[in-house]
Every structure is written in structure tokens, then in C-alpha cells.
Design a protein that fits this description.
The complex is a heterodimer of chains A (198) and B (559). Chain A has four helices and twelve strands, in the order ββββββββββαβααβα. Chain A is an alpha+beta fold and 198 residues long. Chain A has two domains: 76 residues, no CATH class; 97 residues. In chain A, strands 6-5-8-3-11 form a five-stranded antiparallel sheet. A four-stranded mixed sheet of chain A has the order 1-7-4-2, with no helix packed on it. A three-stranded antiparallel sheet of chain A has the order 9-10-12. In chain A, helix 2 packs across helix 3. Chain B is globular. Classes of the chains: A alpha+beta (198), B alpha+beta (559).
Chain lengths: 198, 559
Amino acid sequence: MCIERSRPQFDKKKYIEAPQEPDVVIYYREIGRKEPDIIRVYEYEEAYVVCPTGETKVLAEPGFYRIYSRPARVTWVRLSKLTLTVGVPSTNLPFRYGVHADIVLFPKNVQMIVIGVAKMAREGVITIDLIKEELRRILRDAVLNVKLDPNKPRKEIISRIHEEINTLLKRSWLSMFVCDVQGIGFSHECELAKFLEG
Amino acid sequence: MVGGTDIKRTLLLLHTLNCCPFCGAPLKIVDGKCDACGSVIDRNLIISYVKAKLSQDMYEGLDEVRIMDSIAEASYRLSLASEYLRSRIIMSMRERIDELRREEKEIHPVFEEISRREREILERLESVLNKQQEALRIRTVDALERAYNELLAALKQYGRNIPPEVLGLYTLPDFALEIADKYHKANDYNNAVRWYGFAVVATMYPESPPKGLPKRMSVVHIPYGITHIGIFDGDFDGKPEVFYVPSMGVAGLKIPCVVINEGGVNWNPLNGYGVVFPIFGNLGKYSVVIFAWESSRLPDAKLISMGKEIRIIRDSETQYTLPTYAISYADIDNDGHIELIVLTGRGKTLILDSKDDHFVAKVISVGNISSIATPKLGDVVRFVAMTMDGRLLMIDPITRDVSPIEFGFRNADSVIISSGDLDKDGFDEIYVSTMDGGYRYVFKNGGYQGSKIVDGDVLGMQVVDINGDKEDELIVLKRGRGLILEIYSLRRALGVNVLEKIASYQIGTTYDVARAKMSYEAPFGSRPIFICEDIDLDGAPEILVGLEKSFLIIDPKYA
């Protein structure tokens, strides 16, 4: 293992953390020998560290950690940003209504995160917009595949969409996540839509 | 971006237009589009809907552009609030989530619970906000009490899960100030400080990132002075806390220390001490040292860390207490950890440097000091002091050599000095705020040369970037007809650097204000303080001002 807990640091120049921009969900970075050897994990994050030996360590506890063997690859994932509402408008579907789903993504396969994300480049970010775009596409395909009928019981709709999204998710670049569909809604349930129709 | 009050008012309107007509998702507009499905939301539709659905007094004063702006801003704030809440709830359920993940069980029930709790808290806060608006509209004590009880009940039930950003979004500053003033006038100072703390949170949040010069200044006026104040991220949550020891100038006021920007909560991790004040930072072996006074009558303080009293070695003698009138800190010997600077009275100032488990004290004897600054001159740090008899001195903290900069300042006990590199030459200038004006000293040819740059009764000056252009400006707070905050920028003209006033703001205060004075007779008296620092991390500095029995928190707003 190449990492151990460190005492708190007050000087921001002495440690590395994921950028605080609100749209960053995943941040990955290779930490070289000439860079600060301490990383910070916040309460709402998880970090995955790949040591030079190839060993992977999950940092689920917030705090400061010292990487004593470098270069190491670190991926930060912001858990609280992975509860998303994505929608497909009525104009993109062959029926007269649009659909939205409340979806929770959860990092499941650590190895996949490391392989899928951290090895892409020395440093980079995955933003919420990128994830939403992919989820919109998946939701649209899922809605079309299950031949959605809004008159069916809501629980049944949610369960079928949930299964279909998880199937489609595995084939997408978001395969490191497992998905949980919390709820489904339709545009015709919205008062504003009725107002729009006059 | 619109002002905080509009956002808070609009939050209440949102539930009536809570969905996107194209996908049915809760309406969050980003760049004119639904955040869930990306459909363009026609502004005419929203405006017609608002006008058709709501009574005029709900949107009175908002023109069409502001209706759209405030709806977009409020829905964005709502989504941020929801994210903050979710973070806290996830944290509180972390063990359960990890367990489910280890055992590869279904995560659905746990995330359903997270969403349910989040909805429950937001609905409760919406009702709290509604009641505050009603109380401010009706202005009866009964209505105030109803709103007060509602807010307290919500905090009691969900307090741990409500971060300051969310609390601030759902609290009206006027309401919190009204309650605080009632407590203050009833001599219940503990509750008054707490509610002033809520007013601070409600003023700061929603945050206002700089977009050019501020449009206005929001002010919270606390009727207790400052004895000690420090800004540190003490709990390592990434956001600074303001630790504030109120001055004991009000009979009966006994508050050990409060975190004023987190709802005015009392902070005292030690038993048996009447006043405490922490310094967080890299102090060698320690990452926090608490100055602890047993009584608010005596200046003698112990230094405590990790539950133990710290020894102080001074001239080969061991001490466990120090008379402490004011505390500052800086890495003055460039060794990577900070030293503590303690004004101890009897003409002596101590520089405490940590060695293993104790501090070694270096004594600087130049007379009693009223204010200090630690300017950087290239790579070295100097120690500049204003003595109570009006001498401005530069001191080498290593050799303790003293060089005078200027003599003869009047009323030196109320002077504040600060340092900053406005001209970006690598050498900090010194700014001296006095009753007779503001002075600027520039380091040239191995020494400081200075002149008066601002006339009038100057309460404080500091170099900071207030308009977000990555260039520093000079902030000046003056006392004239009321308080006036001026912003100066340094520009090149006539072949020299010229300060130009670029903005001026009237600062409204609730009570009369007077300069605070440093006094070695009153160990817990009001100290003259002027600090500009970004506390809510919106990119713009908040301005903290210590006056006689008054503490002003000024938050620049950019919309």
C-alpha cells in the first residue's frame, strides 16, 4: 500500500484536492514525484488511489492522506452529485408526453472506475453535463424499449425502467456505476404543460 | 443574478410552477433551458403563468426580466440547497451505504430514504420561510413568535443536516435581526448573539460572486465589540469559521467564544474557562492552540492543546500563563510553521515559536503596542507595530532590531495598521488608519516612505480584490455622515502610481458607532479591528469591523 493518513494541513499549496467547481463529479489525476504528496478527501467524496504497484485503495473516510510512493493515480468521485433528474422531452419521443426520472448513480466497481476513468489521461474531469447527456440518451432508449404505458401502476413502470436502464448502463461508459431509479414522472402531469396547451 | 431577498421570495413561488412542461421534471432553468431534459423554456410562458396564477403582491416590484432572473436563480439555489442537504444526509448514513455496498445489496431503500428526508427538510424550511415573511408583514409579536418557534423546531429536528448555506437561504436577515434585537433589549445576550449569528448567515447566503464592482453592501450590526476574532477552517469542512470573542463591555455579557458565521453557536471545548480563543494552523507539533482565560477579569491566559497546558520557556524560565491582550500570528521566520504574536502589556510583546512540545518566547520591548502587521518584503517577513504613544516601528523579528518609520500619531490607541502589495512590486506597503486620515507607506530604497492618501476619520484600510478582476483594490472604511466604504484602485498616471477612487457606498448601521480603542486596562474591551476576507467562499471578501461596543459584518452584493 502506498498511502497513509496524514495530519490536517492548513496550507492549500501543500495538498491536492479535487476542484471545487459545482459541475465536477469525477476528477482524476496522476500525482508525480515533484507534486505535493498529500491529498484531501472531503466528506461528500470518495477517492480511489492506484499505487505504483497497481494496488487500489478506496478512501471513503474524509481527511488528509499522504502518498508515500509515487507516481500514483487518484480519482475523486462526488457522491452527492450522483442523484440526478434527467428528462426526455415530448418532442423526442413518439408519444404525446415527455418523461423524467430521478436516478441515483452509485460507484460500484472500483476497478472499472480506475480502468475507465483514471487511465484515460494524466489529469481530467467528468462534469455533470456529460453524465446527464449520456443518461438522457439511456433514458430515452429505455422508455422506447419497455414500450412505456403511463396508465400502468407507477411501481411497475419504475421497476421496468430501472431494469432497462441498468442493462443499458452496463453497455455505456458509465458502466462503473450501478443505477437506482427512484421515481418516474410524465409531462402531462405538470400544470404548466396544461397551461401551454391552453 | 438577483439579490438575496428576491431569491428567498421567489423560492416560495416556485412550488406553483414546479415542473417543466416538456418532461415534467422539477423546474430548474439553466441558461434558459430545463436542466433535466434540455428543452428551451419560453420566458413568455413562465411570465404569463406567474401572472395568471399568483396574486400581484407576490411578484410586486419584479419586472418581467427580474421574474425570469429570480426564478432561474432561485431554482438554481434550490438545487444547490438540495445537494448540500443530500451531502449531509449521505454522510449521516455513510456506514449503512458502505455496508450495503460491501454486501452487494439493493441500494434502493437507502436512497429512497435519503430523498424522502431531503424533501421533508425542504418542505419544512419552505414553511419556515413563509412564516418569517408573514411575521415581517404583520409585525406583531405573536407572528414573530410563531415564525421563531417554527424555525427553532425545524433546527431542533433537522439542525445537524442543515448546513449554513441552506439555513441562510431560508432565513430572512430582517427577521433574524428583529429577534436578536428583542433578545438584546431583554438582556438575554446568549440568545441575542445566536440570532445575530443567524442574521449573519442569512445575509451571507445566498453567496454573491463578484461581477465587477459591488452594487450594494449588506450589513449586520451586532451591538457587542470584538476582543478577539479569527478566521480558520477549524472543522476541515473546506469553509472557514469566524471565531469571535465578544467584548465584555456590556454588563452581564459572558460568552466564551462563538462561531458567528455558523448560526452564532457557542464554542468552548474546555471546561472551567470563561473565555477561549483558538489559533488553528501548522504550529509545529500542534495544529491548534487554544488561549484560555479562567476569568474575564484577568488577562492571564493558558495555552492549551490536545487537552494539555503548554509550557512557555521565556528567558530559561518556565511559564504556564501569559497576560494576553491581543493575539496575532504569522510565519515570521519562514520555517513553514506559524509563530504566535502576543501583546502582553508592560511594554512587552512575545513571539512564541513552537519547539517540540513547548513554546519558546522571544521578547520584543518597544512599549505597549496598539496594532501590528506582518508585511512581506520579498522573501522575508517583518513585524510593523504602532505603539500606544504613536510611534510606527519596523522590527526584525529574528534580530529584534527596531527601525522607526514615523512618530507622532495622535490617538494611537485606536489606530489600525495593515499590509498588502497593491503595486505588485513584491514588497508589501503599510496602511495606517487613524482619526486624522489614512496613510500609505511604500517600501523604497531599503526603507518605508509614506504620505496621507485619504482624509477624514478612517476606521480601516485593506488591500483585497473586491471586483473579481484578479487585481487588488484598496478598501477604506471612513466615518463621516454615517459610515462610508470607499474603493480605490492604483493606476499609472503622470509617470507615477496614483490612487483613484472608483466607488463609494453608504453603510447603514442600527446603532451609533465610535472608534474602539486598544486598552491594557480592559483585557476584554472592544478592540479596533478591520479584516477583509472571503468567508462564504463566493470569491468576494466580507468585511469585519470591530468598533466600540459594535461589530459590523459587511457583505458586498453584486446584483
